[in-house]
């Protein structure tokens, strides 16, 4: 299974293509749109989200609600393009507006400067437009298809916010995806501790007034992955490594860990390894410190991925930079921004984890038909239980 996205933040649309999903997968477009709406939400978002009303259009690979086995092509339109059609015109550059919207003062922490240097762009808008986190909307659409694919195979995935700046907002480490969903959907931050939401809002408002931004920690839990996906045989077959790659590929992510991650380094091995139990249903573990992975393979316990999101680099109180033409000191460009996009990030990371897990399932079982795939996985689960 492979996927690809295209499109700029203020271009006409975002496009995504995914190839390798089996035929006969039922897709609920409403559920994709729900995730797109969740990505737009969350306390601390900027004004762009009031312009957009992200909905997906399926333009290939699906008929009467089911995949055809051919590449699935999705589109999310950018409503804001209406205000940028001349600036973003793919053919002509004869508008004064396009000159005015040129970006010459690269933002520290953004792709602007290095992107310009690498590709030879003298208008850094050519970098900004693609490096903008707007692109994550289409990854959410593609990931939501994979989320439905996984659900139909008994695998549930959820993303939520653990920490905003220094504030811990989800203190309990829950593994039950349905329970996590119920809790995090009861507030606008996607956190488990309902009593911390007001404090989080206050922190975001204060940061916004200061023209600053906030990052934090997101956690993704996947329940129902059968043991044995991924492999120990070579470094590039390890599924935890593939997950880390995909998570790191999301804008603003600076760190990834599995299970207890860095915390495990502070404890002796006896308090880190998960003891093996054999129960009526088969092999399991007493705890899940290792986040569902041993030897780069799923071990049947819930998969736990943590990600560190840096604060968004576009600041209303801009930092120092230099003009790329005059080289003189200046303040960084101020494009529209969010105080925090941590809640949105939890939906984006949930989506990329779904993409990676779906890829692992398709690689392992390689079936062209959803019905056959369901049978293969059911047989495999039985074989594991008998081991
Ligand atoms: C975003 C869209 C962007 C930004 C934000 C996230 O749109 P605009 O620039 O028109 O406001 O709001 O992205 C960034 C701040 C960034 O630096 O990439 C979105 O849809 O998530």
UniProtKB/TrEMBL annotation:
Positions that bind FMN: 130-132, 251-252, 295, 310-314, 336
Cofactor note: Reduced FMN (FMNH(2)).
Listed cofactors: FMNH2
UniProt cross-references to InterPro entries, sorted A to Z: Chorismate_synth, Chorismate_synth_AroC_sf, Chorismate_synthase_CS
Protein origin, superkingdom: Bacteria
GO biological process, one term: chorismate biosynthetic process
Associated pathway: Metabolic intermediate biosynthesis; chorismate biosynthesis; chorismate from D-erythrose 4-phosphate and phosphoenolpyruvate: step 7/7
The protein's enzyme class: lyase
GO cellular component terms attached to this protein's record: cytosol
GO molecular-function terms, A-Z: chorismate synthase activity; FMN binding
Assigned keywords, A-Z: Amino-acid biosynthesis, Aromatic amino acid biosynthesis, FAD, Flavoprotein, FMN, Lyase, NADP
Catalytic activity reported: 5-O-(1-carboxyvinyl)-3-phosphoshikimate = chorismate + phosphate
One Pfam family of this chain: Chorismate_synt
Classification via NCBIfam families: aroC, PRK05382.1
Family from the record: Belongs to the chorismate synthase family.
Quaternary structure and interacting proteins, as annotated: Homotetramer.
PANTHER family: CHORISMATE SYNTHASE
Biological role stated in the UniProt entry: This reaction introduces a second double bond into the aromatic ring system.
Protein name: Chorismate synthase
Gene: aroC
């Amino acid at each position: 299974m492979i996927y690809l996205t295209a499109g700029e933040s203020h271009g006409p649309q975002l496009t995504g293509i995914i190839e390798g999903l089996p035929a006969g997968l039922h897709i609920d477009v409403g559920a994709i749109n729900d995730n797109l709406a969740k990505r737009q939400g969350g306390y601390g978002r900027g004004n762009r989200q009031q312009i957009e009303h992200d909905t997906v259009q399926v333009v290939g690979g699906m008929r009467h609600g089911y995949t055809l086995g051919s590449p699935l092509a999705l589109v999310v339109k950018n409503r804001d393009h209406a205000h940028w059609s001349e600036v973003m015109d793919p053919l002509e550059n004869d508008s004064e507006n396009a000159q005015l919207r040129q970006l010459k003062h690269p933002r520290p922490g953004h792709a602007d400067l290095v992107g310009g240097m690498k590709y030879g762009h003298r208008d850094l808008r050519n970098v900004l437009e693609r490096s903008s986190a707007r692109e994550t909307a289409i990854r959410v659409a593609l990931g939501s298809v994979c989320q439905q694919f996984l659900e139909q195979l008994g695998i549930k995935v959820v993303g939520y916010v653990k920490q905003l700046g220094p504030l811990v907002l989800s203190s309990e480490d829950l593994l039950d995806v349905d329970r996590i969903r119920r809790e995090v959907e009861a507030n606008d931050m996607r956190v488990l501790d309902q009593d911390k939401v007001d404090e989080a809002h206050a922190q975001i408002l204060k940061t916004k007034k200061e023209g600053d931004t906030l990052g934090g920690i997101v956690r993704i839990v996947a329940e129902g992955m059968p043991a044995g996906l991924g492999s120990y045989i070579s470094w590039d077959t390890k599924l935890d490594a593939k997950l880390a790659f995909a998570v790191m590929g999301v804008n603003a992510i600076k760190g990834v860990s599995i299970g207890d991650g860095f915390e495990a380094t502070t404890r002796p091995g006896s308090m880190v390894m998960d003891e093996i139990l054999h129960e009526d249903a088969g092999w399991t573990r007493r705890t899940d410190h290792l986040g569902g992975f041993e030897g780069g393979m799923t071990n049947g316990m819930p998969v736990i991925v943590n990600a560190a999101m840096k604060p968004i680099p576009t600041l209303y109180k801009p930092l120092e930079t230099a003009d790329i033409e005059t080289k003189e000191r200046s303040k960084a460009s101020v494009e529209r921004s969010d105080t925090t996009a941590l809640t949105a990030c939890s939906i984006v990371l949930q989506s990329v984890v779904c993409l990676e897990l779906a890829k692992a399932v398709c690689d392992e079982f390689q079936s062209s038909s959803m019905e056959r795939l369901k049978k293969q996985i059911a047989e495999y689960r039985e074989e594991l239980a008998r081991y």
